[in-house]
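Changelog-adjacent note: as of this version, every example in the card shows the full chain rather than a window. The one below runs 327 residues end to end.
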Amino acid sequence: AIDSTANKVTDTILDGITLGTPVDSKVDEDNFYQNDLNGTDGGNVKKINLTASESLGITIPNGYENTVGTYTINFAGTPTVDGVTKLTSDGKDIHFQTIGNKIIAYIGTDVGNDTVNPNNKVFEIVLNKSTGKYNYTQYKNIDHPKSGNVNEANGKENYNDNDNIDLNFKFNITTTSKNGQTVTSDPQDFKVTVNDSTPLANNQDLIVYEDNTLQFVLSDGAFKGREIYIDNNDGKGFEKYEINDTVKIYEGSKEVGLKEVGTIQILEEGKLEFKPDEDYSKYDTSDKNKLPNFKYQVSDTDGDYAKGKVNIEVIPVADDPTIPKKI
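Full-length structure tokens:
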């Protein structure tokens, strides 16, 4: 989700260019995944980048560079941060690379030549001279300062809705007139607010077609320590599972008898994958307590904690008719 608020700045004129009101923006890390656990309306979950684009508040007269001179828009240093003392992503330090009108935030090492390994990018922001806007793109979660139990009263409000980090940016405009005179503006500023994500809490319904697998997201941020605790109703209670581990899923209970109906695999980036056994189906919403299910306890890398239960509904699909061979 993106919203905007205008800074209160008095317009100034720089060689005919009006410096007005840069517009702030906001991105929500809960929007990395659009996930409803319903495999009947879109298949496996896909991650999207977070984006924001707002005005730099500048007005350039028509034909300016043909009649007056040239101009550039560049960042003035690296961003400052409100909300945390040090910026990290999944516990790794975030570094900045400023290249004129572009800032790249990244983890890992700088590979040189003004480039960053794409897999290490956390966010990138570009000042677009042709549109007079900035374009912000975020690729990874940024660790947020507040952490706690999302299931408690006001938990989501405290640890998600009101858990923000402000990225504060400054930029200059430099004009060079046709007679060679160069003038640089005072720094102009705007901010991008990054709102936290938290793991899913409480009861969820997972729906999948017979003989289909479904990936789904429990946390937009990675699992803390690459682990999750799951109770699969086998009578052993909650047990720890790590990335790539497989968990058996049962119908019934230890008391009345267990029937294995599929598996859950633990994936990277807060995801799980359910695979039903071949030809298995059960789709009775009149009593969800009779559905296969598992309970979970998980924290993301911020330390936000949630617990919940996932009921699994497997919709039957008619098999293709078998055509007898001619004798």
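Structural remarks: Residues 89 and 140 are 7 Å apart (CA to CA).
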